[in-house]
Amino acid sequence: MSDLVYFEDIEVGQAQRFGHYEVTREEIIEYARQFDPQPFHVDEETARRSMFGGLIASGWHTGAMLIRMVCDHAIPGTATSGALGFDDLKWLKPVRPGDVLSVETTVVEKIESRSRRDVGTVKVESRVVDQRDQAVMTLTSLVLYRRRSGS
Amino acid sequence: MKHFEDFRVGETGVLGAHTITEEEIVAFGKKYDPQPFHTDPEAAKATLFGGLIASGWHTCAIMMRLSAEAMRRAQEAATGSPGVDSCRWLKPVRPGDTLTLRREVLETWPSRSKPYGFVRTRAEMLNQRGEVVLRLVGVGMVRRRPGEAS
Fold first, then answer.
1. Is the pLDDT of residue A2 over 80?
2. 46-85 in B: which are within 8 Å (CB) of A?
3. Is A2 among the domain residues?
4. Which of A23, A78, A102, B87 matches a 20 to 30 Å C-alpha distance to A61?
C-alpha cells in the first residue's frame, strides 16, 4: 500500500504555498520566439515603446512556469493524473525579467465523476505571486486525482 | 491594419496548422511539465494515457503561436489579453498529430477608458481526424482605429 495522496485524501480548504522561479530576460525571449513572437515579448526596444514600457513574459509562459512549480513541489507524492483544463484565468500584472514567482493554491471543490470510478476532479484555485507578493496570474484548475478505491 | 472596429461577431477563420513531433513534446515536457507521460515515451506507456502526450500548456503554446502568426498576417492591432474564461484539454495530443486552429469572434466591446477594445473569441484546436483536442474561450485587446476612440 503506497502512501500517495488520493482523491479521498483531499480536503476542501487545503492550502499550500511553494515555488521559487527566477524569471530571466533570456528565457522570456526564448519562450516567446518559439510560441508568442509579439514584439513586446521578443524585442526590448519595441517593448520599451509599447504600452507595457519594457519586455514582458508571454502570459502562456507564466502558465508554463506555474506548471513547472506545480510539478516540482505539489505533484510529488500525489496520485494526480493530469488535468481537464482551467477556468477564469486572469493575467493581472506584467511579468518582467528579474521577477521571482511563487504559487499559492487552495482546494475549492471536489467533484465525483459520474462516468469514471477510478478518478475524481479537484478544483484548485492558484495564485502566482511575484517577489512583492502581488498576484500576476490567477486561475482555477480542474485536476484529476486517482481514487484509492479504484486503484 | 485590422483594428478593433474591424472585428465582426460571428466571423470565423482557420488560422494555420502545426504538426507536433516527439522531440518537441519531450523538450517542452522536460522544461515545463516534467511528468512521465510528457517526457518519457517508454514510461508513458504504463500511464493512464498509454503513450507520450503533449502537455496541455504546450498545446496552448502552439495555439498562441498559430494565433500570433495569423495576427501578423492580418496585421491585427493586438495588444495582449486580460485572460481566459475557460480552457479544456479534451483529447490527448500525440506525436505526429497535425493541429489546426479555428477561431470565432463571440463578442466585442470597447474599453471605457483606454484606446483599445475587447474581443472575445472561441479557439479550437483540431487534430487530423477533425477531433477537437482543445477548446478555449478568451479575451484579447485590440487597439482602436486612430480617431475612433473617445
1. no
2. 47-49, 55-57, 60-62, 64-65, 68, 71, 78-85
3. no
4. A78
Distance CA B61, CA B58 (A): 5
pLDDT tens column, B118-144:
999 999 999 999 999 999 999 999 999
Cell of A7: 482523491
A9 DSSP assignment: G
Query: Under DSSP, is residue B44 helix (H, G, I), strand (E, B) or coil?
Result: helix
Do the strands A135-146 and B12-19 form a parallel or antiparallel pair, or are they unpaired?
A: unpaired
- Bridging pattern class, strands A119-129 and A100-112: antiparallel
Provide the domain count of chain A.
1
Q: Which of A53, A59, A55 is nearest to A36 (CA)?
A: A59
Q: Chain B residues with CB inside 8 Å of A86's CB? A: 84, 86-87
HSE at residue B98, side-chain half, CA atoms within 13 A, is 5
Q: Which of A63, A75, A81 sits opposite B60 (nearest CB)?
A: A63
- Domain of residue A54, residue span: 7-146
Domain assignment of residue A151, yes or no: no
Q: Distance between CA atoms of B84 and B96, rounded to whole angstroms?
A: 28
Is the dihedral angle over the CA atoms B35, B38, B39, B44 positive or is it negative?
positive
Helix (H, G, I), strand (E, B) or coil at B129: coil
Please tell me the distance from the alpha carbon of residue A111 to that of residue A104, in angstroms, as a whole number: 21
Residue that is written with C-alpha cell 515545463 in the block: B32
In a domain, A102, yes or no: yes
Q: What is the pLDDT of residues B16-31, one digit of tens each?
A: 999 999 999 999 999 9
CATH class of the region B4-143 = alpha beta
Cell of B86: 475557460
Chain A residues touching residue B81 (CB < 8 angstroms): 59, 91
